[in-house]
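## Example pair
The file below holds two records. Each record gives the amino-acid sequence first, followed by its structure token line.
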Amino acid sequence: MPIVTIQQFPRSVEQKRELARRITEAFAEAYGAKADSVQVFFSEVDGENWAKGGVMGCDREAGSR
């Protein structure tokens, strides 16, 4: 059973729903897997739990992540 883990900044449930659908379709097509065997886990990280170049995400401007 394919398991996909997505690490990302918070997104709406509608966006995650669409991404999960597309990922499931891709695995089913590429691997010949049954759609109901594909699992997608979303791990959402906010700016207080992420840094880039030594600068915390919460200290960056929203558009510069």
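Second record, same layout:
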Amino acid sequence: MFDVYRNGKRNFLVVSNGSPMPALYSSNKWRKSRARVLKVSDEIRAAVQERGYYLGSVRVAKKDLIHTECTVTDTTRGNL
């Protein structure tokens, strides 16, 4: 099992269950996820076994994307 922590900058940190938080990231404000994580991807599992943690970021949702304004050109006769 794994413990998942998240912070306000859309980052998440995955460590083995019961492992201490890495000293490099302990100064940031992390919140532990209440949900139990039983399964993670092979990439995350390999990183946790190798380094003891995995740091990733959450994708930006469509509603958070910045849309540019579209301008409509005048297509009446004589302006083409």
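Notes on the second record: The mean pLDDT is 78. The longest helix spans residues 42-51.
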